[in-house]
Every structure is written in structure tokens, then in C-alpha cells.
């Protein structure tokens, strides 16, 4: 390859490098701008999805005490004997199954 041809190839390689670096910086700025514009407020989880709240439950608590900690249940079922089972569930759109957890307590008399 002649010197003039090699010089042109090197000049083109430098130009390509400059363009790629400029495009990368421009893309990074665009992504950062879009990210800051689209930053959604954090979604607050319902109290029953917070593991620490389940740790606060104790045997013999009333339904009201459980509801103050976990929030209202999504459904209820009869438990064994004098207990009631409070169910907390999340329905997944497009799925047939749901995730359920329960809290058993003795109703106040």
C-alpha cells in the first residue's frame, strides 16, 4: 500500500473512532435524559408483602390486630375450631394462579 493510501486509511480510522466515541457519548446522554424523565415514583408495597410485618404477628391476636399490621385481607375462610383464616393474595394478570398466604387467629368474643 502506498504512503498516501495508508495515510488516508489512518485518517479514516481516526474519523471513525471519533464518530463512534461521539455517538456513544450522545447515546449515554440520551439514555440518562430519558431515564430522568421517565423515573417513576417508587411503588409502595402493601403491608402484607413486607416480611417484617409477618414477624410481628403473634398467636392469639384478634382480627383487628392482624388487620392493623397486614392491612385488610383479600378473603377469609373458616379455620379449624374457633379460628378464622385471613388470606392475602396477588393476582397476576394473564396467569391463572395466584399467590396466597394466610394468618390464622381466634376471633374476639
Summary tags:
rod-shaped; 18% strand; 3-stranded antiparallel β-sheet; 2 domains; alpha+beta; 3 strands; 109 residues
Question: How does this structure look, described?
Answer:
- The protein is built from 3 helices and 3 strands.
- It has 109 residues and is α+β, with helices and mostly antiparallel strands.
- It has 2 domains: 1-39; 47-105, no CATH class.
- The protein has a 3-stranded antiparallel beta sheet, with no helix packed on it.
- The longest helix has 36 residues, at 3-38.
- The chain is rod-shaped and about 95 Å long.
- The protein starts with a helix and ends with a strand.
First and last CA, distance: 98 Å
Alpha plus pi helix count: 3
Helical proportion?
40-55%
Strand order in space, largest sheet: 1-2-3
Mean pLDDT: 75
The radius of gyration is: 30 Å
Number of strands: 3
**Regions with pLDDT < 50 over 5+ consecutive residues?**
96-100
Please describe the biggest sheet, giving its number of strands, its sense, and whether it closes into a barrel. 3 strands, antiparallel
Domain count? 2
String of helices and strands: HHHEEE
User: Which secondary-structure class do the elements indicate?
Assistant: alpha+beta
Overall, the morphology is rod-shaped
Amino acid at each position: 500500500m502506498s504512503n498516501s493510501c495508508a495515510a488516508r486509511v489512518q485518517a479514516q480510522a481516526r474519523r471513525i473512532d471519533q464518530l463512534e466515541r461521539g455517538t456513544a457519548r450522545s447515546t449515554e446522554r440520551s439514555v440518562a435524559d430519558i431515564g430522568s424523565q421517565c423515573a417513576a415514583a417508587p411503588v409502595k408495597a402493601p403491608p402484607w408483602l413486607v416480611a417484617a410485618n409477618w414477624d410481628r404477628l403473634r398467636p392469639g391476636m384478634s382480627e383487628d390486630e392482624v388487620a392493623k399490621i397486614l392491612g385488610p385481607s383479600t378473603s377469609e375462610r373458616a379455620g379449624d375450631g374457633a379460628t378464622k383464616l385471613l388470606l392475602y393474595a396477588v393476582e397476576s394478570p394473564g396467569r391463572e394462579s395466584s399467590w396466597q398466604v394466610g394468618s390464622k387467629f381466634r376471633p374476639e368474643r
